C-alpha cells in the first residue's frame, strides 16, 4: 500500500487567508514534472528564467520521489511587477517536499521556530564547484567558454534553496571602453529582442580588475548556423525579420549604434521564434540629437557586413547599421545568401565599388525595401522608423529612388587582377605627379623674390579697406568663423575620365555665419567648389583656407557687405562648362592653382 503524504500548495491569490492543506492519494505521476514546468511559464517574465527554474524544480522533484514523496501538480511562485520574481523555496526535513512563496513574514516566523530557515550562503564559501563567485547569487564557470573570442562563459544564478539556473557571463578586463559597453547593454537590454542583463559589476582575479556582465542564456544557435542548418518556412523568416528590425529600432531610439551587425551576432531559439541581438563591444552611444559620431578609427565592424562609407570615411552613422541590417535581412530571406555574391573574399571590394549587388532572389516588396537600405549614399537610406512603415511591414512607404541595378559579380581572380593593375597604375601616376610637382616648383622658384614682395603687400592690405578706381570698395580679409567640409563624389570631372586615382572628385563646401568685420556687417553665405580627388590639391586648399586667402568682403552699402571669392586663387564652382563657365574641362587649372598658392607661400 502506497504511503500517503500531505502536500501543501501555497497560493498567492489571497495573502490574508490561511493556507489550506490538500491530500493526495495518487501514485507517482510521470507528468508532474512537466506540469510543474508548465506552471512556471508565468506571463510577463523572462522565458529563459522560467525554463531554468523549471529545470531546477524538476531535479528536486525527481530526487524527492526517490524518498517516496508525492509532488503537487501545481507550484505557484509569487510574481511581482515586471520580470522580478521571488523564487525563494523551502525544503523540509521530512520525507515530503513543500514549496512556498518567499514571504518576509513567513521567513521571520519559520526562522524563529528553527524550521525551514531562509537560505543564506556562508561568507567565504562557494556552492558552485570550480566557479568564480561574482555576487552572493551569481557564479561564473570560467572553464566553459561559449563564444568564439572566449570572453563569454556559462554561469549560474542561485535561487535560494530552490535550485539554480544557467546564465551567460561576459568577462572583460576593466577599461573605460569596456565600462562603456556594460553601460550601453544595461541601457538597451529591456527589450524582447536584446539579450537581457541580469546584473553587472566589478570583480578581481588577483591584482587584475575585471568587469562582468551577467545576462540571460540565449540561443542555442546563432543566425548563421540556424539559416544554413535547414530551410526555414516563410512564416519563420517573417518573424525573424520583424523581430530583428524591432530590436535595431529599439537600439537606435536609445541613441546607440551597434556597428557590428551580422548573422554571427544574432542568437536564435531552437524553434526559430525568438531572436536576440548580442555583442555590443563595438557599439557607440551618441549624444541626443546627433545623427553621426566620429569614429575612433576607420574600419570598425566586420568586412563584408558593413556599409561602404565605413571603409573610407571618418564618420559612422545610424545609416551604417541600416546597410548592415539590409545584408542580414537578405541573408534570412534567401536562406543564407549574400546580395554581393557567394564568395566572402570579394564582398568588401564589391561593396566599396558599388557593383555586383543582386537582389533578384527577393520578392518585389522586399526587394524594394532592401534596395532602399543598400543605397550607397547614407542620407538616401531609410531610418528604422521609415523601415517599419514600409509596405513590406504593412505600411505606406516605398523606396523613392530608382531600383538598384543588378550587376553580375566578378570572379575573385578577376578582382585580384584588377586590384594589382590599379595599384601599378597608381604608382606610375604618383611618380608622374611627383615629377610634375618638381617641375612646377623649379618654375616657381624663378619668381620667388617677386612673389615675396607681392605676399607682403597682400598681408598689409588684409587689415584695411581700399577703394578701387574701377569697382566697389573691398575689404581684403577673409571673415572668421568659416568652416570647410570635403565630400567625395564618385564620378570623374570632365577632362579626368579614365585616369586611375582621379576617377572621383572632391566637393568642397565653405560655410560662413553672419558677422561683422571693420564695422561692416555681412549675412550667412555658403560656397561650393569642385576639384579632382587629388590629395595634394586638397591639402593645399585646406592650408589656403586656414590662412584666410580664399575669400574677401565686397561693400554693398555704407555699413553692409557680402562675402565673395578672392579671385587671386583660381576656383571652380561648376563641374562642367569649361573655363568660361568656371567649370571643367580646364587643362590649365591645376597649374594656375599651384602657381597662385605658391605665390601666397602655400606649399605641400
CATH homologous superfamily of the largest domain? Transferase(Phosphotransferase) domain 1
Strand content: 15-25%
Largest sheet: 6 strands, antiparallel
Strand count: 24
Structural class, by secondary structure, is alpha+beta
Per CATH, what is the topology of the largest domain? Transferase(Phosphotransferase), domain 1
Number of domains: 4
CATH C-level name of the largest domain: Mainly Alpha
Number of helices: 14
Helix content: 25-40%
The low-confidence runs, each spanning 5 or more residues with pLDDT under 50, are: 1-50, 67-121, 463-470
Quick synopsis:
The chain has 604 residues and is an alpha+beta fold. The protein has 4 domains: 5-113, no CATH class; 132-216, Phosphorylase Kinase, domain 1 (2-Layer Sandwich); 222-410, Transferase(Phosphotransferase), domain 1, CATH 1.10.510; 455-599, 2-Layer Sandwich (Enolase-like, domain 1). The chain has helices at 32-39, 47-65, 104-113, 176-188, 223-229, 234-253, 318-333, 347-353, 364-373, 384-388, 412-445, 448-462, 535-546, 589-599, and strands spanning 5-7, 22-24, 132-133, 138-145, 152-158, 164-173, 197-205, 208-216, 221-222, 256-257, 266-268, 275-277, 284-285, 292-294, 315-317, 465-466, 474-475, 483-489, 505-512, 515-517, 520-522, 525-532, 551-555, 561-565.
Give an overview of the whole structure:
With 604 residues, the chain is α+β, with helices and mostly antiparallel strands. It has 4 domains: 5-113, no CATH class; 132-216, Phosphorylase Kinase, domain 1 (2-Layer Sandwich); 222-410, Transferase(Phosphotransferase), domain 1 (Orthogonal Bundle); 455-599, Enolase-like, domain 1, CATH 3.30.390. The chain has helices at 32-39, 47-65, 104-113, 176-188, 223-229, 234-253, 318-333, 347-353, 364-373, 384-388, 412-445, 448-462, 535-546, 589-599; strands at 5-7, 22-24, 132-133, 138-145, 152-158, 164-173, 197-205, 208-216, 221-222, 256-257, 266-268, 275-277, 284-285, 292-294, 315-317, 465-466, 474-475, 483-489, 505-512, 515-517, 520-522, 525-532, 551-555, 561-565. A 6-stranded antiparallel sheet has the order 3-4-5-6-8-7. A 4-stranded antiparallel sheet has the order 16-17-23-24, with no helix packed on it. A hairpin with a 5-residue loop joins strand 5 and strand 6.
Amino acid at each position: 500500500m502506497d504511503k500517503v503524504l500531505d502536500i501543501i500548495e501555497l497560493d498567492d491569490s489571497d495573502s490574508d487567508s490561511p493556507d489550506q492543506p490538500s491530500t493526495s492519494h495518487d501514485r507517482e505521476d510521470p507528468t508532474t514534472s512537466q506540469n510543474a514546468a508548465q506552471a512556471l511559464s508565468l506571463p510577463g517574465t523572462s522565458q529563459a528564467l522560467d525554463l531554468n527554474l523549471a529545470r531546477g524544480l524538476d531535479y528536486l522533484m525527481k530526487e524527492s520521489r526517490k524518498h517516496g514523496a508525492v509532488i503537487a501538480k501545481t507550484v505557484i511562485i509569487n510574481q511581482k511587477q515586471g520580470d522580478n520574481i521571488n523564487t525563494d523555496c523551502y525544503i523540509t526535513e521530512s520525507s515530503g517536499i513543500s514549496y512556498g512563496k518567499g514571504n518576509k513574514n513567513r521567513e521571520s516566523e519559520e526562522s524563529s521556530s528553527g524550521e525551514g530557515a531562509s537560505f543564506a550562503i556562508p561568507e567565504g564559501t562557494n556552492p558552485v564547484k570550480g566557479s568564480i563567485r561574482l555576487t552572493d547569487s551569481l557564479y561564473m564557470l570560467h572553464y566553459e567558454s561559449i563564444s568564439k573570442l572566449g570572453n563569454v562563459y556559462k554561469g549560474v544564478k542561485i535561487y535560494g534553496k530552490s535550485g539554480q539556473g544557467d546564465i551567460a557571463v561576459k568577462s572583460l578586463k576593466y577599461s573605460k571602453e569596456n565600462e562603456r559597453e556594460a553601460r550601453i547593454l544595461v541601457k538597451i537590454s529591456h527589450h524582447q529582442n536584446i539579450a537581457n542583463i541580469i546584473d553587472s559589476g566589478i570583480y578581481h582575479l588577483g591584482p587584475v580588475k575585471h568587469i562582468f556582465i551577467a545576462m540571460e542564456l540565449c540561443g542555442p544557435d546563432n543566425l548563421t548556423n540556424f539559416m544554413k542548418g535547414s530551410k526555414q518556412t516563410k512564416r519563420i523568416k517573417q518573424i525573424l525579420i520583424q523581430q530583428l528590425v524591432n530590436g535595431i529600432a529599439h537600439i537606435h531610439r536609445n541613441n546607440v549604434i551597434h556597428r557590428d551587425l551580422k548573422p554571427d551576432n544574432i542568437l536564435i531559439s531552437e524553434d526559430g521564434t525568438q531572436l536576440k541581438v548580442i555583442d555590443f563591444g563595438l557599439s557607440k552611444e551618441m549624444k541626443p540629437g546627433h545623427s553621426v559620431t566620429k569614429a575612433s578609427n576607420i574600419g570598425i565592424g566586420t568586412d563584408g557586413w558593413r556599409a561602404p562609407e565605413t571603409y573610407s570615411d571618418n564618420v559612422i552613422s545610424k545609416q551604417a547599421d541600416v546597410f548592415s541590417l539590409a545584408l542580414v535581412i537578405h541573408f534570412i530571406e534567401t536562406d543564407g545568401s549574400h546580395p554581393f555574391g557567394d564568395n566572402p573574399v570579394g564582398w568588401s571590394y564589391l561593396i566599396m565599388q558599388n557593383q555586383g549587388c543582386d537582389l533578384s532572389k527577393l520578392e518585389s516588396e522586399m526587394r524594394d525595401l532592401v534596395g532602399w537600405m543598400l543605397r550607397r549614399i547614407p542620407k538616401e537610406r531609410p531610418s528604422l522608423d521609415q523601415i517599419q512603415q514600409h509596405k513590406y511591414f504593412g505600411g505606406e512607404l516605398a523606396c523613392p529612388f530608382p531600383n538598384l541595378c543588378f550587376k553580375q559579380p566578378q570572379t575573385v581572380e578577376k578582382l585580384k587582377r584588377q586590384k594589382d593593375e590599379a595599384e601599378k597604375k597608381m604608382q606610375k601616376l604618383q611618380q608622374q605627379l611627383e615629377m610634375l610637382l618638381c617641375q612646377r616648383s623649379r618654375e616657381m622658384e624663378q619668381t620667388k623674390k617677386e612673389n615675396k614682395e607681392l605676399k607682403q603687400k597682400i598681408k598689409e592690405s588684409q587689415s584695411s579697406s581700399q577703394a578701387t578706381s574701377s569697382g566697389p570698395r573691398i575689404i581684403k580679409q577673409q571673415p572668421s568663423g568659416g568652416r570647410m567640409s570635403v565630400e567625395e563624389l564618385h564620378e570623374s570631372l570632365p577632362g579626368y575620365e579614365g585616369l586611375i586615382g582621379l576617377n572621383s572628385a572632391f566637393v568642397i563646401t565653405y560655410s560662413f555665419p553672419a558677422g561683422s568685420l571693420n564695422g561692416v556687417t555681412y549675412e550667412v553665405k555658403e560656397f561650393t567648389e569642385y576639384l579632382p580627388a587629388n590629395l595634394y590639391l586638397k591639402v593645399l586648399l585646406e592650408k589656403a583656407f586656414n590662412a584666410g586667402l580664399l575669400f574677401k568682403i565686397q561693400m554693398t552699402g555704407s555699413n553692409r557687405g557680402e562675402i565673395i571669392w578672392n579671385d587671386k586663387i583660381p576656383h571652380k564652382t561648376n563641374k562642367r562648362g569649361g573655363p568660361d563657365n568656371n567649370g571643367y574641362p580646364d587643362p590649365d587649372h591645376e597649374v594656375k592653382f599651384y602657381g597662385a598658392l605658391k605665390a601666397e607661400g602655400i606649399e605641400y
